């Protein structure tokens, strides 16, 4: 859902703990602005709860209506994308150097047990399986990961060798967060890094 705030303001809060209902990472969207641009443009479900900070007049635009509007007037998509990008901080606009997108075919290894690649993987779609081999050569499945899962956090942050082999069960696309990017965040954006560590934990 996309919202245009005609008057008033909206508060967006990300739930970090569904069990406790804790609301964190609040930010406000003021009158004359759109709220929900990323979710409406990407087609993904929003992770934020949106509430009115004060008495407000808001025009909601559903996904179905947005699709109809974009078909009749395709030019609105790049315009909304520009509005979204212009709202990002300079830090966010320049993080692409530290991210990479990779595809893995069925049966292809993402990393081997004992390797030191030190990357964190975010699964966009597909499935990855973690397989550990003991000293006797016996293999066992440690875990499986699907869309939106983070893989390799502990080993990357602590710079340990991989404890198991990560293999694609089917065609899988991932975002790769490199260790150099994490070092950059820690050096130039310590507050951002602490928030990332809190979310990943």
UniProtKB/TrEMBL annotation:
The record's listing under Gene3D superfamilies reads: Jelly Rolls
Organism of origin is Henneguya salminicola
- Which PROSITE patterns does the entry mention? CNMP_BINDING_3 (PS50042)
- Protein name (database record): Neuropathy target esterase (Trinotate prediction)
Q: Which domain of life is it from?
A: Eukaryota
| Stored InterPro entries | cNMP-bd_dom, cNMP-bd_dom_sf, RmlC-like_jellyroll
Domain (Cyclic nucleotide-binding) spans 83-184
